[in-house]
Amino acid sequence: MPVEIRELTTMDECRQVAALEKAVWGYTDAEDVVPPPVLMVSAKRGGILLGAFEDSGAMVGFVYSIPGVRDGRLTQWSHMLGVLPAAREHGLGLRLKLAQRERALAMGIELIEWTFDPLQAMNAHLNFAKLGVVVEEYEENVYGNSTSPLHHGTPTDRFIAEWRLTLPHVARRVTQPALVVRDAGVARAPVVNPSRHGEPWVRPGVADLSLDAQRLLVEIPTGFTEMQADDPALALEWRLTTRAIFESYFARAYRAVDFFLSRESRRGQYLLVPRS
Could you tell me the pTM of the whole model? Predict the structure, then answer.
């Protein structure tokens, strides 16, 4: 799908972003939407605001980050990446993130951070397999209650992704992801929570929080958004089970460094390793 990705500089473009926020997340409360004046001011003072446009001139996606500081160095905090459903099968989310990376590097910035739901398998696949993020932090119920149907039924727990733009493994992921070689030892890593077969979704297994291997795998289901709508009790069970796992192992100095997606088995697996 041919699109143009460019910086947004006008109030009208910012209004289009606000409309996309509502279309992508289904927000019904103005409190959930970043208002156009805030988008405009932050973009003029160090933020990054990029839009993706079809040939017709319609905006079909955007990415938005604001300036931040970590350990005394300037960073970007990526608040939103939104793509309309019809454009999601064309790799537009990845293209927007890569454009954001290029803009940040041109500004002399080497770290972009953002939150994402650890139970959203497709987001995890993008963030780890294609962008090369790592995760060391887990936050409970970051955004509280939301009017978005994508967030109903479970606490808004989130990972904090660290995208260190200049590291060699990030460069490999963003330029030649198909050539990334997995260590054979990963396949032999113990699974913290072997999931159980179920219809239409797999069910969480009993978690072992006492493992101390050099590599660990943590399983999640695919289709979590649909699960939240159709079986909120099961979605909550997955949320609380994985919350206990990640908080326990992150507290023991593990971090998540990769994600393996298996659409056929309706599962994904995070790879956890000790922090060096």
Answer: 0.93
